[in-house]
């Protein structure tokens, strides 16, 4: 459909098994995502794209440990292992991903002092990526989101998509989550409450 787009979130090596921030089963979704890409007219990809020494890395804060929280000027921030460093193998899309059909690749997290989960906004919640305007100019009003991770970059992208006026669907069978301290259940509920349609054909 001309007014629909598939948004593939961060299906990169560092988020797949063997990567610096590996998500269990992250590579399992590649065949399904490829099938969705083949069946969709408009495809957008996001790519985590951090400079070395990014402020969201635990290694940038002496004595800090990955998966702990700190306060940043824009609010609370989870600290992560170094991952998706610009130009590294870990930042590349998974080698099995049929990504070349993508009409747009949104790189995010490249500003050294602000992390970026969402495809639409950096974590300061004011700096826009430009995706909403691009989609509107293309006449696209319905989005299906897939990728990694369900409870972080996929969920924040979905919440922002709804807030920007897009009909938003998350295909849970084509996502995998981190589930950090119960984050998966919490973010699934937040998406439901916001009006995101959560589809899981495997549970039907």
Tell me briefly what this model is.
With 204 residues, this protein is α/β, with parallel strands linked by helices. It contains 4 helices and 8 strands.
Describe the structure.
The protein is α/β, with parallel strands linked by helices and 204 residues long. The protein is 21% helix and 22% strand. It contains four helices and eight strands. The chain has helices at residues 30-38, 131-137, 150-163, 183-194; strands at residues 4-9, 43-48, 69-72, 75-78, 104-108, 142-148, 167-176, 197-199. It has a six-stranded parallel sheet. The chain has a two-stranded antiparallel ribbon with strand order 3-4. β3 and β4 form a beta hairpin. α3 packs parallel to α4. It is globular, with a radius of gyration of 16 Å. The model has no long low-confidence stretch (mean pLDDT 96).
Question: What secondary-structure arrangement, pairings included, does this model have?
Answer:
Layout: E1 4-9, H1 30-38, E2 43-48, E3 69-72, E4 75-78, E5 104-108, H2 131-137, E6 142-148, H3 150-163, E7 167-176, H4 183-194, E8 197-199
Parallel strand pairs: 1-2, 1-6, 2-5, 6-7, 7-8
Antiparallel strand pairs: 3-4
Helix pairs in contact: 3-4
């Amino acid at each position: 459909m001309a007014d629909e787009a598939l948004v593939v979130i961060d299906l990169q090596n560092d988020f797949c098994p063997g990567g610096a921030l590996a998500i269990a089963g992250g590579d399992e979704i590649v065949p399904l995502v490829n099938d969705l890409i083949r069946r969709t007219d408009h495809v957008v990809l996001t790519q985590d794209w951090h400079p070395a020494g990014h402020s969201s890395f635990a290694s940038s804060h002496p004595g800090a440990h990955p998966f702990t929280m700190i306060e940043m000027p824009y609010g609370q921030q989870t600290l992560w292992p170094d991952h998706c460093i610009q130009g590294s193998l870990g930042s590349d899309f998974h080698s099995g991903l049929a990504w070349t059909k993508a009409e747009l690749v949104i790189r995010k997290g490249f500003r050294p002092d602000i992390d970026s989960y969402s495809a639409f906004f950096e974590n300061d919640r004011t700096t826009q990526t430009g995706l909403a305007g691009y989609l509107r100019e293309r006449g696209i009003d319905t989005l299906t989101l897939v990728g990694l991770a369900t409870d972080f970059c996929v969920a924040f992208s979905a919440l922002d998509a709804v807030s920007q006026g897009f009909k938003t669907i998350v295909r849970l069978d084509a996502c995998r989550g981190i589930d950090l301290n119960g984050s998966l259940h919490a973010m699934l509920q937040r998406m439901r409450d916001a009006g995101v349609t959560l589809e899981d054909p495997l549970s039907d």
